[in-house]
Amino acid sequence: MQHVTLTVNGTKVSCDVPDETLLVTFLREHLNLTGTHVGCDTTQCGCCVVHLNGKSVKSCTVLAAQAQDGEVTTIEGLAEKDGTLHPMQEAFHRLHALQCGYCTPGMIMAAVNLVDTYPEPLTEEIVREQMEGNLCRCTGYHNIVKAILAVAAAKHGVTDKAPAPAGAE
Amino acid sequence: MLAERVFKAVGKPVPRNEDQRLITGKGRFSDDFSLPGQVFAAMVRSPHPHARIISIDKTPALQMPGVLGVYTGEDCVKDGLKPIPHSPVPSTKYDMKLRGPGNTEVFAGSHMPLPTDRARHVGEALAMVVAETLEQAQSGAEQVAIEYEVLPWVADSEEASKPGAPRLWDELPDNILVDTFFGDAEATEKVFASAPHTVTMKSHVVRVTGVPLEPRAALAHFDPATQRYTIYAGSGGAVRQKQELAAVFGIEPKNVRVLSFDVGGNFGTRNRSFVEFALAMWASHKLGRPVKFRAERSEAFLTDYQGRDLVTEVSLAIDKDGRFLAMRASNLSNVGSRCVSLSPLSKGSGLITGSYNIPAATLHARAVYTNTMSTQAYRSSGRPEVTFAIERLIDKAARQLGFDRFELRRRNLVRPEQMPYTNAVGSIYDSGEYEKNMDRALALGDWTGFPARRAEAKSRGKLLGFGFANYVESSIGSPKERADLIVRKDGIEVVIGTQPAGQGHETSFAQVTADLLGVPFEQVKITLGDTDIVSAGGGTHSGRSMRHASAVIALGSVDLIDKGKALMAHLENVPLEKVEFEDGFFRVTTSNRALSWFELAPLAEQDGLPVEFKDGLRVRRDNEMHTPVYPNGACLCEIEVDPETGAVDIKRYTSVDDVGRCINPLIVHGQTHGAIAQGVGQALWEECAIDPASGQPLMGSFMDYGMPRFDNMPSFKSEIVEVLSPTNPFGIKAGGEGGTTGALAVITSAIDDALADYGHPQIEMPVTPLKIWNAIQDYKKHHKAA
After folding, report:
1. Strand partners for B306
2. Is the peptide bond before B766 cis (omega within 30 degrees of 0)?
3. pLDDT tens column, B508-564
4. Disulfide check for B32: which of A34, B111, B132, B275 has CB 3.0–4.6 Å away?
């Protein structure tokens, strides 16, 4: 057993868990944070992306014990305490960047990290290349790309030039 | 048809009601539920494509830590479990009627939760182990010792249809379960005999799988006090699951409660019951504990119901002016080891002539059993396959006979004035402007600018190809739907039996209801997915939901308004004809008295009202609607091929889709994008390949099954066309499957065009870089220094 202590979404948590417990299992089953999903067994789909110490990680490929003393943010902790959505959540909603919603938490967490950390202005090509580790079966990625670019544009003081949501673009 | 009116919500790109919970991590997917004391089930799966089960030794597994029980097919029989009643033969009035050989009933192999006799495909569940933890159940499953007699197997449908092929079912003399002719064979043959031109093509539209990102999961619980089962299990229709799961146990459907809330993708794969759902229920009864099953991704690849797998051979007779005279087709469907659905074969059968006026046609439709996972309707069931066949055959005809491929299509398209048009196999196309779709698509995709783009690509050593396809598809589906409309003081609730997996029913149905009842969109709530609340309903498949839901809600709204008027008349003590309803208000014409829905609703709760108001301001409406609709459109794409490597790059993708009335363009465009991606995936990467030497499936993870990804997909240009269908109140067709329907044809058309300098090789899907490269090398070898 491992005694794991973490800060998850700003709250300190502590649990005894079997050595092999994955971070995603820890979040879903020990903390009941079921917003983080599991879509594969091979670190391919990205449904389980969370932030660990400010970086995107696939939480199915991190042991809970490896995250010891770390700061974890999950989809449940992304909005403000008063419920104000993170700009990425708002853009996903406004631009219809989700359908079934299963990949969405991991997608949003990865996208937030991309916009926050990428050193240069984002283009469609960069977004598509950088987000390749997240799979979506519903949207064809089109509206997800638009949402990420819209948030990136707003963040860098550029007018939101994302085309009309349902337009012929 | 509803009188044209100013819609306030219908037609607007309203962002979805569903999103708030899904973007904040508060969705309710099946595996998100847990119950106190729950235990876990793991399956022991067949490693063989075909094998007799000689014995199953449970003892070593039962000695493993935490293992609570090991169950086999013999135990199922002992406990009186029955096969899952899949009812695979489509049976609405307008479905093509598939029959067994010699006009017999179709034989659908028994689908027991666990078999007693044989394993018929790799991955088939043969035993279940239940343990305190998932890891213990999995370790236990590894210890179950099964002795097999390995049998000859067959996975390929053409091989399976041959005499002497390994046979799956003792009840049949061979593997052929469907053998039906459609159309007028004699007339067709006569035309072919004298036609100036004939062209022929054969292709295998290979098997793929749906890959919803949420692996299937179930949590079942049996309550001895009430003798009821509760199962949390996402699907394509909770009511259907309830009925089929009840049938497995031979109990009344009311003794099963299915809860299906957020569903992480479906695309058809979840529309039939999975054995593990019944098994989890069974184990929960036997053990007195809630039992959870959750498929791993590799189990999903092996044993989610799969899609496509059709061998099609088509011929077209053409006159000297390029008019299509007759068509002959032979379609062979691979249903896998058990027949769970013949929808793909049936749907495709009705559409073999595509968007074209072909006076005579005949189709030989067959289906065979093979040692593979069962196939099921997968996004646009049956239509992409036949669209691929006719569209690619037209490209080939144009090339061989020297016609312009667009002109050849124009000359033969069904014209608006021919609508409703009955095609040569009896399908009645309701409406559409097919040539206009073509014109719109070609303009939107800048066909006229293509030669310059091709020349530019060539200057970089690349081959740019232009692909084009028209399509028409059909939306039929389960004919019955029910809606409960309930007015309360703070809003209106609609309870309905469809089952979205991302299609946004909570939004689009609310838009429809809001406009029908004259209330703000925000005051309508849609309730789905709990069979203790949703009493009936046809689920979500075949693009049926928006059409069926809007129709039954429209009918229910009329009833509800009538009830409101009657209540108002009673309360105000005026004759019924003195009450008018407009814009959400009931007005007494002889006074200035007016009440909104939300003022009237509480008044319906008071004592002493006549009996017709005893349930309050609510109505239940059932509707049965058989007439199909035919969404249609045109699509084009440009693909750049690197002749040095065979790599492909989709540069543009444009589609024009006639969906009938579009309730929410934001959602419909999203559906189009996703549908295109699934079609592109099949055309370029996806395949449930089986090793021809061993019969082993070669794809078990995302590392070996090619998926559409961010970096291999383009952005799309999509345009919605609304030619209203005369068949239902709102004029709806469907918007979920058009994108997939044309995609197989248009992608392969573009690659074909790109390889013009290499002799237009016919490359079977998925058209991978290796196949392209090989085709180029092959051409070079045979045309050395010509």
Report:
1. B209, B375
2. yes
3. 999 999 999 999 999 999 999 999 999 999 999 989 999 999 999 999 999 999 999
4. A34
Determine the residue type at B577.
Answer: E
Cβ(B436)–Cβ(B729) below 8 Å: no
**A167 pLDDT band (50/70/90 cuts)?**
very low
Residue B337 to residue B343: CA distance in whole angstroms: 16
Consecutive H or E run containing B600: helix B597-603
Q: Inform me whether the C-beta atom of residue A47 falls under 8 Å from chain B C-beta atoms.
A: yes
Buried b (16+ CB within 10 A) or exposed e, B348-358: bbbbbbbbbbb
- Are A141 and B15 inside 8 Å of each other by CB? no
Q: How many CB atoms lie within 10 A of CB B519?
A: 22
**What is the rounded CA–CA span in Å between residue B235 and residue B84?**
15
What contacts B410, CB < 8 A, 6 or more positions away? B435, B438
B199 strand-pairing partners:
B316
What residues pair up with B53 in beta bridges, in sequence order?
B148
The amino acid occupying position B579 is: V
User: Tokens 């995107």 appear where?
Assistant: A56
> Distances in Å between the alpha carbon of A133 and those of A48, A63, A107, B52, B362?
11, 19, 9, 42, 47
Quick check: A25 contacting B, CB < 8 Å? no
- For residue range B729-743, list pLDDT tens digits in order: 999 999 999 999 999
Q: Cβ(B528)–Cβ(B258) under 8 Å?
A: no
Closest chain A residue by Cα to residue B652: A169
Predicted model pTM: 0.97
pLDDT on residue B234:
96
3-state class (DSSP) for residue B5:
coil
* Calpha distance B47→B729 (Å, rounded): 52
Q: What is the DSSP string of A4-49?
A: EEEEETTEEEEEEE-TT-BHHHIIIIIS--TTS----SSS-S-TTE
Tell me which of A92, A122, A130, A142 to substitute to probe the interface with B (most B C-beta atoms closer than 10 Å): A142
| Strand residue runs (E) in B513-647 | 524-527, 579-582, 585-588, 594-596, 618-624, 632-641
- Nearest 10 degrees: Cα torsion B650, B656, B662, B664: 20
Contact B296/B271 with Cβ under 8 angstroms? no
- Residue B118 C-beta-side C-alpha neighbours within 13 Å: 21
How many degrees, rounded to 5, is the angle at CA B692 between CA B686 and CA B697? Answer: 45
Q: CB distance from A123 to chain B under 8 Å?
A: no
Per-residue CA distances from B78 to B81, B82, B84 (Å): 8, 11, 16
Q: How many CB atoms lie within 10 A of CB B99?
A: 16
Taking contacts as CB-CB distances below 8 angstroms, the residues of chain A near B18 are: 101
Partners of residue A47 in chain B, C-beta under 8 Å: 213
Query: How far apart are alpha carbons B162 and B35 in whole angstroms?
Result: 51
Q: Where are the alpha helices (DSSP H) in B518-577?
A: 545-572
A33 touches chain B (CB under 8 A): yes
B629 DSSP 8-state letter: B
Between CA B20 and CA B27, with CA B26 as vertex, the angle to 5 degrees is: 90
Quote the tokens at residue A66.
Answer: 């490896």
| C-alpha distances in Å from residue A71, one per residue of A12, A50, B44, B405, B461 | 9, 10, 39, 60, 50
Burial class (CB in 10 A: 0-12, 13-18, 19+), B402: exposed
Answer whether A19 touches B (CB < 8 Å): no
Amino acid (1-letter code) at residue B35 = L
Predicted ipTM beyond 0.85? yes
Q: Are B681 and B707 in contact (CB under 8 A)?
A: yes
Chain A residue with Cα closest to B214: A39
